[in-house]
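Supplementary Text 2. Reproducibility record for the structural model of the 245-residue chain.

All settings were left at their defaults, and a single model was retained for analysis rather than an ensemble. We include the record here because the model underlies the residue-level annotations in Supplementary Table 4.
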Amino acid sequence: MKKLAALLSAAALIFCSSAWSYQITAPYKSAHFALYQVVLDAHERFDDSLRFEITRELQTQNRLNKSYQSSAMIFPYGSQGLKGTIGTEALGLISISNYATGNDQIVFNPNAKSASYAGLYFSFDLLTQFADNKMLNPLMQELLRLPLAVTDIPVSAAGFDSKGNFYVTARHGAILLDLRLDDSVYYTRQDIYSLKGRKNCTIDALIFTERAAADLPLFISARAAVNNISCPDMKAAAPHEGAAD
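Retained model, structure tokens:
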């Protein structure tokens, strides 16, 4: 009897050690898209096993909600998550998409170390393809209501408006993106302002759409936080080297 009790006790310990206690919520959600936040429990470590478990749960949620794409920002124990600032520490971003292809496309960004990456993950080219395809117009209108983490945005023009706000403009095909660069966890204001006058630059940014015109070319005006700057003649700032005031 004692041996059986010992075995049952050991089994219980194994079960408890394999159970996950992280909290997952969806602060931003639409009919076909969702942005989740995952806050780990005190005893949890964000390793490959936990990443696999979170990814599996996200895939299940996508299927149940008939979502075409979702992102999940992973935060450590005790974090305020998306209620904090864009500088809130994060552990990475998981993005899952499935546009009727039958297979989930899963991307994990381990370099997403702050809440400044917490958005639906899109490259500028993919965003352009959405705008080009009129059948996807309803989806585009959904997307513009959620935070977007857009990569490889080509800077066509950069400068200040009459109120002193700094803007960059990107234009390609059926999309015109006008971004007011309000903040950055990774770059100083001078780093950002140095985009003016430079050529062939691209940026990655978290954007929040303020207004849009659906006629082609699709016009999107948004405020943005800069996550990466890439110019042929500019050395990229290291993460947390400086942040805009």
